[in-house]
Amino acid sequence: MKRHLSAVVVAGWGLLNGVLLAVLAVYGESALVFWLWGGVVLVLELAAAAVLLSSRTSPDAHVRYRVPDRGAGAVLPAAVGLLLVALCFVYGRWLLAVAVPLLAVSAALAVRGTAARER
């Protein structure tokens, strides 16, 4: 299953949504909610099947790409951290407890880099 990890991730996401659908059933939601959320679970599981089929038909297509810049891995945590800082103005300063560590991780990744050192 190690070669088809992407299909496992999508299928797990669908199963998690199935569990959330069961939680909604416990709280007695309306039938419309079940149809909508059940449709989402079905689409996710179909996507997982498509990913699995794709990875089985052409396993040679999976190539490891190198990140061109060593600090490029810092972009995503920095973007999420800055988004949370902006949301602090709307939802309160408690979001800084999440934003500051993300920005610290981003700074560490920018300084240290994410790729292995070349010789």
Helix-strand blueprint:
Layout: H1 5-26, H2 31-57, H3 75-91, H4 96-112
Look at the helices and sheets and give the structural class. Answer: mainly alpha
**What value does the Rg take, in angstroms?**
20 Å
Q: Number of DSSP helices?
A: 4
Spans of at least 5 consecutive residues whose pLDDT stays below 50 are none
Number of strand segments: 0
Shape: flat
Would you tell me the overall average pLDDT?
Answer: 81
Write the element-wise H/E pattern from the N-terminal end onward: HHHH
Helix content: 55-70%
**CA-to-CA gap between the ends?**
33 Å
Main beta sheet, described? Answer: none
Q: What fraction of the residues are assigned to beta strands by DSSP?
A: under 5%
Structure description:
- α1 (5-26) runs antiparallel to α2 (31-57) and α3 (75-91) packs antiparallel against α4.
- The chain is mainly alpha-helical.
- The longest helix has 27 residues, at 31-57.
- The model has no long low-confidence stretch (mean pLDDT 81).
- The chain starts with a helix and ends in a 7-residue tail after the last helix.
- The protein is built from four helices and no strands.
- It has helices spanning 5-26, 31-57, 75-91, 96-112.
List keywords for this structure.
119 residues; mainly alpha; 70% helix; flat
Task: Briefly summarize what is shown.
With 119 residues, the protein is mostly helical. The protein is built from four helices and no strands.
